[in-house]
Amino acid sequence: MTRVALVTGGTRGIGAAISVALKAAGCKVAANYAGNDEAAQKFNAETGIPAYKWSVADYDACVAGIREVEADLGPIDILVNNAGITRDAMFHKMTLQQWREVIDTNLSGAFNMTHPLWGGMRDRKFGRIITISSINGQKGQAGQANYSASKAGEVGLTKALALEGARAGITVNNVCPGYIGTEMVRAVDEKVINERIIPQIPVGRLGEPEEIARCVVFLASDEAGFITGSTISANGGQYMA
Ligand code: NDP
């Protein structure tokens, strides 16, 4: 059976690798993105995966976007809540705007995408919801109170929904990546990456987006029906939750 998958933030970084891996696994895939049209067009040209623009921080836009994807591809079976941003600052310097932007995109974004899809998944007695959280939601990170709170919130949301979805054939899980070599991490000074970040990672390197994508493909598969409310920590041994 061909499953339909929607990946938020699915045109760049980890999300792009997830979109490609789900397509390779036989799914019909739609990739959402926020505003980087150039990256989305390049991704679409290279992969043939359709890209849809809306902000996951906007509930009404999510409802409209989901409707458009379902009109094109059919009912969505697999949702990957991957879209995420950082607005780093030490807490004494963090603005309310930095707090809100990160919570609205990362945590409310997961709600805004999951909530409109939940009823259809319940009716069809099948669903796979996979949310990309973070090692920093598990252990906390200085300079990222907003991001760590949003990512820990995603784990709580996942566990509650796993209980509610269990009898309806919906599994709800997290993947918590450690440091992965995407633009989000490459934005950090290379010296900091080499001298401060990599020495904290027992395997001695950054992770690859494809390594996260493989976890998602497994959790999205029909065969993973007994796994719900779980977190896969893919962090090179940096933090063992
Ligand atoms: P990138 O910055 O490389 O890509 C982010 C993607 O999310 C882009 O496609 C972007 O769209 C999209 N996006 C951002 N805001 C919104 C929004 N409001 N609505 C819709 N889409 C949006 O991020 P990564 O690939 O590094 O990260 C992906 C996920 O993995 C995030 O949730 C992140 O927190 C998590 N993560 C990443 C780690 C890492 O080391 N990279 C470590 C742990 C967790 P556009 O292209 O239009 O800007």
UniProtKB/TrEMBL annotation:
SUPFAM superfamilies: NAD(P)-binding Rossmann-fold domains (SSF51735). Keywords: Oxidoreductase. GO terms for biological process: poly-hydroxybutyrate biosynthetic process. InterPro entries: Acetoacetyl-CoA_reductase, KR_dom, NAD(P)-bd_dom_sf, SDR, SDR_fam. The keyword Nucleotide-binding does not apply. One of its GO terms (cellular component) is cytoplasm. This is Acetoacetyl-CoA reductase. It comes from Pseudaminobacter soli.
